[in-house]
Amino acid sequence: MGSYQGDDTTGFQSPAQDYVEPVIDLAQLLDLRRPGLYPVRVVGHELRARGIHAGDILIANAAAEPTSGKVCVAFLHGEVILATLNLKDDAWWLTPSKGSPLPVCDDVEIWAIISALVRMRV
Amino acid sequence: MFALIDGNSFYCSCERAFDPTLRDKPLVVLSNNDGCVIARTQEAKELGLKMGDPWHIASKKPELKSVLWKSSNYVLYGDMSRRVFDVLSSMVPRVEPYSIDEMFMDYTGLEGDMTERSVAIRAAVRQIAKIPTCVGIGPTKTIAKLANKLAKADRSGVGVLDLSTAEARREFYPCVELGDVWGLGRASVAKLAKLGIDNVASFVSMEPDLVRETLTVTGQRTHAELRGVQCFTFTDAPSSRKSIACTRSFGRAITSFDDMREAVATYAARAAEKLRRFGMKAGAMQVFMRTNEFNDDPKYSNSVTFEIEPSADSFALIGAATRAARSMWREGFRYFKAGVILIDLYQAAELPVGDLFASRDPEKSKALMTALDAINGRFGRGAARPSILAGRADWSMRRGNLSPCYTTRIDDLLTVRS
């Protein structure tokens, strides 16, 4: 809506219309229409070592299965945080950047696995 | 064979999907202008809150002090509804949205156990679209809907009820009140009560002739459907009071935007007519378009939900719907289906009078203005007016506790602490 397509002029139709290539579509590249993908915004600097900075947009994938070592969005005692996943004795554990590992349970939930990162100001 | 999947307290579940502090708490979502309860969690239900309760009264009751509330956020609910639809479409070949939170799935010809399939679908929707649901299965839509209702009432947590067999129906029908049946209004239930018919088992055992004498054609169809005789096909159903949908598969695939605009405008106009017939206005709209799921055509499916200046005005609704269609249109696909669903419905009289500002869209063509003026001249000022741009939601409604549009606005993204 509202974007110039070359076909909506009041004068003659643009002869270039058939040759216009669309701009690169990051939503398409990241496949953001998939139902399990949720962009989220990072607050805090605790994961710099993992290359995740404050203000970054992370793409969280709720359809992805947990994998050891991956960063995930977790619901932890009423808070939304980033944590690192680990499989120990057939159970998933979450390690927040502050604090010790916690086993996944009712109040410690894996919400989605981080699959991509978008940084606007580099 | 049909299955109906329905989000549990859908609007509340959408809010809970992004906010863990709302979990396990009594929560309600309020209608436009923060007026009445339009969704409530099980915890809120147990405290005695009813649908339609005016919040300014309920919130003052001491026993309801603990109840949390949210203003309605249809942009968020629409996007979560799209996610539910997309998950279902990836698991069953045919899905038909009935309202923002209810979708019919066609199980005809699918192999394997239907309950197991439903359990898997429920789990996927819960994990991916973050919405807890219940599923009802039946040979007709009315039975599937009833099974869904019973599945929801059962608190064991299974969330799936299969009424596909006559044995299962015989077991459940005697315990179900007629008021719980889709398509039987209060008047019909009262008429049947006079004949001593007060549960589904005694209703289905009635002679069709007597049903015809006692009830309307709709009642007759409901009777047949409950007996397992299909009256509603996959694409039609009795109208919902929660939303007005006008969707259609095209006879021939649509490949030009002009045809799509025409189709979407027609659906919007039809939906607007229905709206006016019910004396209602819509405060939000969902528009979708998609390619054929069954053939080898390249696939594209998109849907967008947005709030509009509350209206029952054809021009406003057509304008909003076609602009939404424009924003979703991608060249090069063969479109198979499109639709317009009006949500956030309320009686026109409930709206605050006055300064819902009639916004002017400077791009409107002169021809349309002339047409609007002609209509306004004939039917009175304000009968028709241009709508505001899709996606803007800043009219003078009170929305004191609106959640962020987590999934559709870049400034509203869910924040995660590192």
Automatic annotation (TrEMBL), chain A:
It comes from Novosphingobium chloroacetimidivorans. InterPro entries: LexA/Signal_pep-like_sf, Peptidase_S24_S26A/B/C. Residues 9-97 form the Peptidase S24/S26A/S26B/S26C domain. Keywords: Hydrolase. Signal peptide: none annotated. Its EC number is 3.4.21.-. It comes from the Bacteria. SUPFAM superfamilies: LexA/Signal peptidase. Gene3D superfamilies: Umud Fragment, subunit A (2.10.109.10). It is an enzyme of class 3 (hydrolase). GO terms for molecular function: hydrolase activity. It holds the Pfam family Peptidase_S24. This is DNA polymerase V.
From TrEMBL, chain B:
The keyword Transport does not apply. GO terms for cellular component: cytosol. GO terms for biological process: DNA repair; error-prone translesion synthesis; SOS response. It comes from the Bacteria. It catalyses: DNA(n) + a 2'-deoxyribonucleoside 5'-triphosphate = DNA(n+1) + diphosphate. Keywords: DNA damage, DNA repair, SOS mutagenesis, SOS response. Pfam families: DUF4113, IMS, IMS_C. Its EC number is 2.7.7.7. It is an enzyme of class 2 (transferase). Residues 2-185 form the UmuC domain. GO terms for molecular function: damaged DNA binding; DNA-directed DNA polymerase activity. Monomer. Poorly processive, error-prone DNA polymerase involved in untargeted mutagenesis. Copies undamaged DNA at stalled replication forks, which arise in vivo from mismatched or misaligned primer ends. These misaligned primers can be extended by PolIV. Exhibits no 3'-5' exonuclease (proofreading) activity. May be involved in translesional synthesis, in conjunction with the beta clamp from PolIII. Belongs to the DNA polymerase type-Y family. This is DNA-directed DNA polymerase. It comes from Novosphingobium chloroacetimidivorans.
